[in-house]
Amino acid sequence: MGFKIAGRSFTGRYKVDEIDEIEEEPGLYAVLCYRNKRHYLVDVGESENIKEELEGKNGKKTEWDKHCSGRLLISVYYTPDMEESDRNKLEKKIRNRHNPPCGKGWPI
User: Fold this and answer.
1) Which domains, from first to last, does the chain contain?
2) pLDDT tens per residue, range 74-97
3) 94 near 44, Cβ under 8 Å?
4) CA–CA distance, 6 with 22 (Å, rounded to integer)
5) Which of 1, 8, 41, 46 can bridge 87 by disulfide, Cβ–Cβ 3.0-4.6 Å?
6) Peptide bond into 107 cis (omega under 30)
């Protein structure tokens, strides 16, 4: 199952503590909260290696939990041909549109 975020197709619904299936590839990750049969964007980030980035975010899980009264999930958008500057622009676009993790968030 995938999600369209800022016109991009993010894939997967990985549990935050079970990210073994996520590739060691460049891209963006979206932290989602699933509750009331809807997905809410909690956080978004970019990295040259998504899996490694998420493995290093264990301390951030506490922050994500504060903004989710449902189930936390990770969805990814791999960008093997995208430069870091373009990933940063896309992350900024998503942050500006959805304003995570502040407020109530927006359904995807």
Assistant:
1) 2-98 (3.40.1440)
2) 999 999 999 999 999 999 999 889
3) yes
4) 21
5) 46
6) no
